[in-house]
Design goal:
Layout lengths: L5 E6 L13 H19 L4 E4 L5 H12 L7 E4 L12 H13 L2 E2 L11 H12 L3 E5 L8 H14 L3 E5 L1 H15 L7
Parallel strand pairs: 1-2, 1-5, 2-3, 3-4, 5-6
C-alpha cells in the first residue's frame, strides 16, 4: 500500500459543537486535538492538507497546518472553497482568518468559480475533495449527526472502491484532551 500523501480535512461547524463565541474554551481543546492529529499525519508522510476552510474544524485545522509549516516546510496547504463569497456570512474574525489562510495557501481555487447557486455546489465540493486526496481526517461522531456526514458519504464510497483511508477524530479524543488540559491547568472545572 502506498503511503498517503494528501488528505482532506473536515468536521463540524462551530454551531454544531454548541460554540457561538470566538472565545469559547472548547475551541482551545479542539485546536489542541487537531494539532496533535495533524502532526501525526505529517510524521506518517502526508504532504498536502486540503480543505474548503469552512468555518469551524476546517478553518481551525488549516490555521494549524500553516503554523506547522515553520517546522515542516515540505507541508503544503490547498484551500478549495466551493463558490465565490463562501465566507460572506461568517463573523468578521472568521472572514479575516479565512482571507489570511487563502492568501498564504500553497494552492487556492474556488471549485465552481461562480457565486452560490444551490446545494449542488456543496456536493461538488465534497466529491472534489475526496476525489483529489488519498484520505480524510474527520472530526465527527455518527451519533451526533451534522454536515460532515455528506463528505463522509463521499469518502466511504471511494473507500469501498479502492484504498481511501478515513482517519477519525472522535468525541472521546476531544474529551480526553479536555481532561488532560484540565489536569495540567489544575482547575478541574468542566465548563463546555
Amino acid at each position: 500500500m502506498n503511503p498517503i500523501k494528501s488528505i482532506a480535512i473536515s468536521g463540524y461547524k462551530p454551531y454544531e459543537l454548541g460554540i457561538f463565541k470566538a472565545n469559547h474554551p472548547g475551541i482551545k481543546v479542539i485546536r489542541t486535538v487537531l494539532h496533535s492529529k495533524l502532526i501525526e499525519q505529517v510524521e506518517t508522510g502526508v504532504e498536502w492538507f486540503i480543505s474548503s476552510a469552512q468555518t469551524g474544524v476546517e478553518l481551525w485545522a488549516m490555521d494549524i497546518v500553516q503554523t506547522l509549516q515553520a517546522d515542516y516546510p515540505h507541508v503544503k496547504t490547498a484551500i478549495l472553497p466551493p463558490f465565490f463569497g463562501w465566507e460572506e456570512r461568517w463573523s468578521p474574525q472568521e472572514q479575516e482568518l479565512f482571507q489570511s489562510l487563502l492568501s498564504q495557501a500553497d494552492y487556492a481555487k474556488y471549485i465552481t468559480e461562480r457565486p452560490y447557486e444551490s446545494p449542488t455546489q456543496l456536493r461538488i465540493r465534497n466529491a472534489f475533495l475526496v476525489k483529489h486526496t488519498d484520505g480524510l481526517l474527520l472530526l465527527y461522531d455518527e451519533e451526533q449527526q451534522g454536515t460532515p456526514q455528506y463528505i463522509l458519504k463521499e469518502a466511504r464510497a471511494k473507500q469501498a472502491a479502492n484504498t481511501y483511508e478515513i482517519n477519525w477524530i472522535t468525541i472521546e479524543d476531544v474529551s480526553e484532551a479536555e481532561r488532560m488540559m484540565q489536569e495540567l491547568e489544575g482547575d478541574g472545572r468542566n465548563d463546555w
